[in-house]
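Hypothesis: this fold can be encoded by more than one sequence.
Test: take the C-alpha cells below, design a sequence, compare later.
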C-alpha cells in the first residue's frame, strides 16, 4: 500500500514539474522559414548579354600550370589546414555527443582490509541510462551535427576562396611581369633619347635644357622600373604564402590567358550554391536546437541504474559468481537555481535570433558581391575600349612628333611628353586587363562556383 501511495505521489510531482517546465518552453519565431523566404525574395541580378555556363572556378581559366598551383595550395596552405582541423575537432565532439544517447557501463573491483579480518574484495558492474523523455540529448546531438555541417560549409568556402586567390595571384604575376616589360621599354627608349640628345648637344644642335629634361625622364623611368620589379618579387612571395611555401618561383606567362565570363543564372539557384550562406543557414538550425535544449533543462529528468555486485575473500570470488542485483530509478528536477536556467534559455534564444541576423547579413553581402562584379565587368569593358582607342591615337601621334622633332618643329619636352603618354596608356591598359580578368574570378566566386575535384566530369 505504501509503495502504491509513494508511486502516486512521485507521479503527481513529476507531472506537476513537467507542466511548469512546458509552460516555460520557447515560443521564438521560425528563423529557418524566415531565412528561406529572404533568399527566395531576392530579385534577379543585373542582366548580362554574354557569359559561359560553367560550374567550376578553374574552368574559367584553362591552364594545367594553374591547376597544379591550386592543387599545391589546397595540400599545403596552413590556413586551410587549420580550417580542416577545426572540422575534425567538431566531428570528434559530435561523436562524443552521440555517445550520451547510449547507456554507460562501468566495472569495478575494490579491496578493503580491516585489522584482525581477512581482506574483502568487492566486484561491481553497473549500467546507467538517462531516459531522453524530452529529446534533450537528441537536441544536443542535433546541435553538434549542425556545428559540423556549418564548419564543413566554411571549409568549402575557404577552399574556394583560396583557389580564387591563387588564380588572381597568378594573374597578378602576369600583370606585373608585363608592367616590367613596359617599363623596361620606356627606360630603353628614354636612354636612347638621352644619348641622341647628348650627341646633338655636343654637335651644337641642342641646348642644355633639352639634355637635362632627357636625363630627368630617364632617371625617373629607371626608378619606376626598380619599383615594379620589387612589386613582382613581393607578389611572388604573396603567392608562395598561399601555396604554403617558404620560397620558390613560379613560371610566368608572357601574355594573359583567356578567362571566361561566368553566366549569372537565377538568384535563388546561385545563392543556394554559396557555401557561406549554407554555413549561416545551418548555424541558425544548430542554435535553434540549443535554444530548445536550454528551455528543456527546466524539465524533470529520469535516470535508471542497474548494478550487480559480489563480495569475496579473493579477487576471483568477487568476480560476480553469486552477485546481488539492485535497480535504482531517480527523478530529478530543478526547483530553485536563482533564475540561472531561465537566463540561459533567454541567452540561447537571443543567440538564435543573432544567427538569423548573421544569415541576413551574409545574404545581403552575397547579393552585393554579385551585383558589384557584374557592374565592374561592364565598367571595365567600356574603360578598356576607350583606352584601346586612346593608345592607338597616342602611337600615331608619337610617330608624328618624332618626325616634327627631327625637323625642329617641336621641342624635346613635347616629344618626351608624348612618349610618356604612350607608355602610361600601355600601363593603364595592362592594369585594366588584369582588373577585368581578376573580376571575372571574383564574379565566379560570388556566384558560388567551386573547384573541380580530381575525377569529376
Amino acid at each position: 500500500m505504501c509503495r502504491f501511495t509513494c508511486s502516486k505521489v512521485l507521479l503527481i510531482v513529476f507531472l506537476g514539474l513537467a507542466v511548469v517546465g512546458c509552460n516555460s518552453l520557447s515560443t521564438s519565431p521560425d528563423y529557418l522559414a524566415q531565412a528561406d523566404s529572404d533568399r527566395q525574395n531576392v530579385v534577379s541580378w543585373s542582366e548580362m548579354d554574354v557569359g559561359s555556363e560553367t560550374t567550376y572556378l578553374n574552368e574559367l581559366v584553362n591552364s594545367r600550370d594553374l591547376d597544379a598551383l591550386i592543387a599545391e595550395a589546397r595540400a599545403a596552405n596552413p590556413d586551410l589546414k587549420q580550417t580542416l582541423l577545426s572540422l575534425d575537432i567538431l566531428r570528434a565532439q559530435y561523436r562524443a555527443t552521440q555517445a550520451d544517447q547510449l547507456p554507460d557501463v562501468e566495472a569495478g573491483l575494490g579491496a578493503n582490509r580491516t585489522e584482525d579480518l581477512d581482506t574483502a574484495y568487492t566486484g561491481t558492474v553497473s549500467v546507467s541510462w538517462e531516459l531522453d523523455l524530452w529529446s534533450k540529448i537528441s537536441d544536443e546531438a542535433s546541435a553538434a551535427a549542425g556545428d559540423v555541417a556549418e564548419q564543413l560549409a566554411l571549409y568549402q568556402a575557404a577552399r574556394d576562396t583560396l583557389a580564387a586567390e591563387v588564380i588572381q595571384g597568378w594573374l597578378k604575376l602576369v600583370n606585373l611581369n608585363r608592367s616590367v616589360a613596359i617599363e623596361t621599354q620606356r627606360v630603353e627608349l628614354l636612354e636612347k633619347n638621352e644619348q641622341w640628345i647628348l650627341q646633338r648637344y655636343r654637335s651644337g644642335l641642342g641646348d642644355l635644357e633639352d639634355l637635362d629634361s632627357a636625363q630627368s625622364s630617364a632617371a625617373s623611368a629607371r626608378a619606376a622600373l626598380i619599383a615594379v620589379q620589387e612589386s613582382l618579387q613581393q607578389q611572388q612571395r604573396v603567392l608562395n604564402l598561399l601555396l604554403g611555401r617558404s620560397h620558390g618561383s613560379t613560371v610566368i606567362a608572357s601574355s594573359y590567358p583567356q578567362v571566361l565570363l561566368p553566366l549569372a543564372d537565377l538568384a535563388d539557384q546561385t545563392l543556394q550554391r554559396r557555401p557561406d550562406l549554407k554555413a549561416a543557414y545551418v548555424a541558425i538550425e544548430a542554435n535553434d536546437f540549443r535554444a530548445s535544449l536550454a528551455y528543456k533543462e527546466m524539465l524533470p529528468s529520469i535516470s535508471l541504474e542497474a548494478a550487480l555486485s559480489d563480495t569475496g575473500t579473493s579477487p576471483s570470488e568477487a568476480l560476480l559468481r553469486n552477485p546481488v542485483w539492485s535497480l535504482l530509478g531517480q527523478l530529478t528536477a530543478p526547483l530553485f537555481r536563482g533564475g540561472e536556467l531561465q537566463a540561459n534559455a533567454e541567452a540561447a534564444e537571443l543567440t538564435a535570433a543573432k544567427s538569423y541576423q548573421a544569415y541576413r547579413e551574409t545574404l545581403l553581402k552575397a547579393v552585393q558581391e554579385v551585383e558589384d562584379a557584374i557592374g565592374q565587368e561592364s565598367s571595365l569593358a567600356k574603360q578598356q575600349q576607350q583606352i584601346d582607342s586612346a593608345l592607338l591615337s597616342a602611337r600615331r601621334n608619337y610617330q608624328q612628333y618624332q618626325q616634327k622633332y627631327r625637323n625642329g618643329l617641336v621641342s624635346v619636352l613635347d616629344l618626351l611628353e608624348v612618349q610618356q603618354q604612350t607608355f602610361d596608356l600601355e600601363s593603364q591598359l595592362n592594369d585594366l586587363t588584369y582588373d577585368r580578368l581578376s573580376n571575372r574570378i571574383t564574379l565566379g566566386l560570388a556566384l558560388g562556383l567551386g573547384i573541380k575535384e580530381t575525377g569529376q566530369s
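The mean pLDDT is 86. The CA atoms of residues 298 and 334 lie 6 Å apart.
Hypothesis status: open.
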